[in-house]
Amino acid sequence: MDKINVHLLGRPYVELNGKRVNFPYKKAEGFFYYLCVKKDITREEIIYVLWGADNENVGRKNLREAVYQIKKLLGKEILVTEGHTGISLNPLSMPEIDWDKIGEDYIPESEEDGFLLHFHIKNCYEFEEWVSSMREQYNQHIMKSVREKLFQANIQKDMGQVQKYGNMLIRQDPYNEELYQEIMEIYAAGGNYNMAIKLYYDLEKTLSEDLGVEPSGEITQLFHRIFNVKGNVAQTGESWNVSFVGRTQEIYQISQCITGIGQSGAPRCVAIAGEEGVGKTALLNKAAQMAKGYQRVILHAACYSEEKEFYLRPWNDIFWELEQCVESGIFEADLIQEEKQQLHQLIRGTGGEKPGEIRQPSFQSIERVAIEMCRKLTKSHRLMLFFDDVQWMDTMSFQLLNRLLLTLGTEKILFICTYNQNSDQEVIEAMEKLIRQDLLTTFSIEPFTKQETEELLHRHLPQLDEENEKKEQIYEMTEGNAFFLMEMINYIKEKGFTLEISPKANNVIKARLAGLPEAENQVLSCMSVFPEKITIEELELLLPDMDRLTLVRILEKLQERHLIKETLVGWNIYYEFVHRVFREYIYEHQSQGKRRVCHQILAKYYEEQGKTKPNFPTLPMTIYHYERCHDQAKTYEYKIAYLNEYYTLVNENFPILHWEIEEGEEEPALAAGAAQMMDLADEVIRLSDTSPKVQEMKMRMYYLKGRYNIAQGEYEPGLEGIRQSIELAEKLGSVKTLLNCYKQMSFYGIQVEDPELVKEYLDKGFALLQEDENEERGVFTRLLGWYYLYKKDYEKAEEKFLEAVELFQKPESQEGCLHISIAACYGYLGDLYREQGKLEEAAGYYETALKTGTDKVMANGLGQFYSGLGQVRLLQGRYEEGEKYLNEAIECLKRHGYYWGREKAEACMALLLLKTGRKEEAREYFKESRRISEKIKNPSTELLLREVERELK
Predict the structure, then answer these.
(1) Which end of the chain is more exposed for a tag (fewer CB within 10 A), N or C?
(2) Angle at 676 between CA 673 and CA 681, to 5 degrees
(3) For residue 549, which phi and psi values (nearest 5 degrees)?
(4) Which has the closest alpha carbon to 147: 119, 118, 115, 186?
(5) Which helix (H) or strand (E) holds 749?
(6) What is the pLDDT of residues 823-870, one digit of tens each?
(7) Rounded Cα–Cα distance for residues 37 and 603 (Å)
(8) Cross-strand partners of 414
């Protein structure tokens, strides 16, 4: 069947079997394009569109001629005529049309990809009208997609994408001021002030040159606001304030409040919440610096916990600053002359009837004088008050603040304040009247993100730029809290790299924890023994005398104090410290004896949990607590068990796991890297102790090293490790280890296609097997099936694979840990039928293998099944499916850095790409396959690579 490709986007053209065709005349071409969009049309419809100016008979004659020309050019099967009324594209010979591939989120790669670009039919106005309507529909669809992409880019703060999609929208609608304003707001909120300003200048130029007008007052006001914010936020390379990495959005939000936002357009006050040390005061100071650009008189006051009981204490600072403004000439001397004496009374508390008499004025008199004084000042000046830590502000000061704002309005007087998030309810209640009048905006600032922390470290500790692990440790310790982060940076500058808490930070933590009740301190002490989040049941192990309800109440109280937080994972509730530094501080300030006892209790608990129900995530916890109570023997025992299980998953095609891995935990949370495993192996092997226990550990570590090296294609050290393990296993009488080593030697034999070596070690294994060992017997029987398959004794091979399936099904009470072993047998049956050329039967077995083997963990064997299925589709010429499955295979095998089988999948992909004419892509897969094959040394893959190499030349 001929392959027809129709390109309607950009300059239109049609390809028949890869070659462009030329239509005999424009109307025949236009008729075919119209039909490609509509798919099914009436004769009257197309005659009207293309031959509307002719009489009916002439139009029908022209249509018959056009139909004839299309069939002659593209084949008789391309069109279907429905009697004398309709014409349609033949669904059985449907061409591939780019127009049909336009999805909901389609955006063209080039703006030259318009609908039927530069295609015109002379004096055919109905056709031109249809093309124009389709272009409009096409453009609207694209702009909708572009706007959605712009929205997503804004959420992700990807300014490169914002610029790309913003420019596309503006090119489509170059005079839309609302669009310019929206994009300027996005740029400014992301800290890209220069881009926002440039966009305004672009608009100004476009309107002036094309329409002879200026931008509206609204967008001009936005421009001036952004320009002012830019002038007051330090740029890269200038003097830089630590707390303003990533605070651009908050700065811009404050600028919006100062100039007026919302329907009323009135300025609004701002209250900034946050935890201790997050950078609230620094943000307040930056906002004060910015506010000077709005011609406001800036007045500062800080509130302190020690002064909470002293009425109007923060206002004393404000009044003193007003006095200084008079003295410095900001206000005219006589502006508040009448109130000057009263001002002194307010500040100093004087003003009794007799000279020298001290009298505390009433709140009413203070309020009256303050309002009158501010009324006079705001006739010619606008005031802006900045209060830090208003959670310590007294009730009377809050009342005066509310009264001033409600009386004079935010056009004349504004305030910005900060407060600790622990006091959120009290502060909001104190300013409730302002909130109800929509005069106050509140927002919280968060700790620095990981990216912002890295930027900060780059500026202050550039020597750590390449030290990703150290940067990660610093972030985990400080969790992005500005105070703790800067303290750690300064401490590292002074002492060199360390994760110790600085004395200053220690004092802050000590003050934060001071005064806690004994029960709360006890709970925090127990929590600090755990390395991560914990359940209430785990916490109760260390608090046996505390009942559940009391413990829950204490945990709630600690959450209210923002010392710990509650985390929901699925339906499970966990508790953890808000800041890691608090955990470290509390842990280090406990006695060593208490810590060791707690770790012993927890180590034994997790150990028993593993015996009752082997659960993989409990292994790292068991190791952690045994390490902390310095039980070296137990630590080694469980580290080896952990690494054995983990690297069974990583280094074997069809792993049998005896520790349960929960859903979503196939990549173990504390997975050791290969380097760590090798270090542990060397450490154990170097032990001089010759006791049976140590010899057993050495035997297991030789096995782990050998298995890892064989899987990586490092055969010489791998085989040596297995031989050492066999020697110790024979000495210690460890049948289980001998069987494991024999399997590894068989796996090696399969990799290098040495069937006699495989048979030698299978015979040794069968000689050791007991009658009831179905699991091990199943593995050896399956490998024997491979031996017969390689020898092309297909009947015996199939018999052994089916026998292995039966053996694996017998112990299935182990909750499915043998699913992948059963799947492996089906995978080998797929290989067997593929080699015999029975491709559909082979595909069926591969699909069964994939269905059977897909479990909580993604084993490397799934990659082998995908590879086999991809090879079947390649042999069948179903290249699209073949490419899909081979891609799945390569990704699956890459997941754990697994080599065996990947080299063949890469080579098959190269061959497939060559057959579909994608030579350069094929070359890349060939290179990767060649690189891996040099390690694995599989003869079949080598033959395949030679075939690919010949095709590439």
Answers:
(1) C
(2) 125
(3) -65, -40
(4) 186
(5) helix 735-751
(6) 889 999 999 999 999 999 999 999 999 888 875 445 677 888 999 999
(7) 70
(8) 384
**Do the Cβ atoms of 16 and 4 come closer than 8 Å?**
yes
Question: 383 - beta bridge partners?
Answer: 297, 413
CB within 8 Å of 940: residues ≥ 6 apart: 753, 904
- AA identity, residue 442: T
Q: Check residue 385 and report its DSSP letter.
A: E
Beta carbons within 10 angstroms of residue 929's beta carbon? 26
Q: What whole-number distance in Å separates Cα of residue 64 and Cα of residue 70?
A: 10
Q: What is the pLDDT of residues 753-797, one digit of tens each?
A: 999 999 999 999 999 998 778 888 999 999 999 999 999 999 999
Amino acid at 890: I
* pLDDT above 90 coverage of the chain, percent: 31
Alpha-carbon distance values, 537 to 460, 552, 603, 623, 665 (Å): 43, 11, 15, 20, 21
Q: What residue type is 615 in one-letter code?
A: N
Gap between the Cα atoms of 460 and 187, Å rounded: 27
Contact 464, 471 (CB under 8 A): yes
Mean pLDDT of 690-695: 86
**6-43 CB burial, b ≥16 within 10 A, e <16:** bbbbbebebebeeeeeebeeebbbbbbbbbbbbeebeb
Average pLDDT value over all residues in the chain: 83
Contact 174, 206 (CB under 8 A): yes
Dihedral pair phi/psi, residue 382, rounded to 5°: -110, 130
Q: How far apart are CA 287 and CA 531, in angstroms?
A: 39
**What are the counts of helices (DSSP H) followed by strands (DSSP E) for the chain?**
41, 14
Alpha-carbon distance 318 to 57, whole Å? 94
| 847 CA to centre of own chain | 32
What are the b/e assignments for 246-264, b being 16+ CB within 10 Å?
Answer: bbbebbbebbbbbbeeeee
519/539 Cα distance (integer angstroms): 13
User: Can you name the residues that pair with 413 across neighbouring β-strands?
Assistant: 383
**CA distance readout (Å), 489 to 3, 464, 783, 790, 857:** 65, 11, 58, 63, 41
Q: Give DSSP secondary structure letters for 273-306.
A: EE-TTSSHHHHHHHHHHHHGGGTEEEEEEE--GG
74 CB-near residues (< 8 Å, 6+ apart): 2, 4, 14, 16, 21, 32, 95
Q: Are strands 413-420 and 269-274 parallel, antiparallel or unpaired?
A: parallel
For CA atoms 202, 158, 241, 313, the dihedral sign is positive
- Find out whether 256 and 428 touch, Cβ atoms under 8 Å: no
Structure token digits, residue 347:
């500040």
Q: Write the DSSP assignment of 525-587 as a string of letters.
A: HHHTTSSS-B-HHHHHTT-TTS-HHHHHHHHHHHHHTTSEEEEEETTEEEEEESSHHHHHHHH
Which residue bears the tokens 């002012």?
228
CA distance 546 to 523: 10
3-state helix, strand, coil in the chain (%, to 5): 65, 10, 25
Between vectors from CA 844 to CA 843 and to CA 849, what angle results, nearest 5°? Answer: 95
pLDDT of residue 233: 57
H helices within 328-449, ranges in order? 337-348, 363-377, 395-408, 424-430, 432-436
Length of the chain equals 953
Cα-Cα-Cα-Cα torsion 823, 826, 827, 830, nearest 10 degrees, comes to -160
3-class secondary-structure state, position 13 = strand
Dist CA 830 CA 851 (whole Å): 13
Whether pLDDT at 236 is above 50: no
The whole-number average pLDDT for the span 100-119 is: 78
pLDDT confidence of residue 313: 80
**474/494 Cα distance (integer angstroms):** 16
625's tokens: 């607590």
